[in-house]
Predict the 3D structure of the following.
Amino acid sequence: MTWGSAMSSSSSSPSSPPPPGSPRRGTGWVVAQFVLLAAVIAAGFVPPDWPQGVQRALTLAGAVLAIAGLGFAIWAGRTLGRSLTPFPRPVEAGLVTRGPFAVVRHPIYTGGLGLCVGYSLFAGPAAFALTLALGFLWAGKLRVEERLLTAVYDGYPAYQARVRWRLVPLLY
C-alpha cells in the first residue's frame, strides 16, 4: 500500500522519481487526507454527542475497533517496510503481498478506517460523518494507487486477482 496522486503528462516514466513536492507524487491526496484526519479528531470536541442511551455501547465498540484498526495499520506498515509512503506513487522497493496484504490490498487504509470509525463511535456523529468522507477520499486515492502499481509492477494484476478485496473483505 502506498498512500495518493494523479500522474502528470510529463515525459518522465513511472519509474523515475518525481521531485519532492511534485503534484505527480500525489501531494493533493496526502494534504486532503491529513486535513480530513485532523477534522475527524477536532469533531470529537464539538457537539452533537451520541444519544445517552447508546453512548456507552458505542464507546466500548469504538474502543475495540480503534485498537484493532491501529494494530492492523501498524502491522501493515511494518510489513510494507521500505515501500511505505503516504503518496500514491509507489516506492519501487518490491511488491508486498504477504501478511495483511494477503487479506486486503490496502490494509493501512483498512486499519486507518477502523481507527477513525472507532474514534467516531466515541466522539460523535460529526466525527463519523467526516470519517465517511475520509473513506470516500481513500477509495478514490487507492484507485489512483492501483493504476500506478499496475504500471510499476508486472505482478500487480495477478495480485489483484488473488486478493479480491481492496479494504474490507466481503464488502469492498
In short: Confidence is low (pLDDT under 50) at residues 1-16, 18-23. Residues 54-162 form one domain. The two ends are 16 Å apart (CA to CA). Helices lie at 27-43, 52-80, 107-123, 125-152, 156-162.
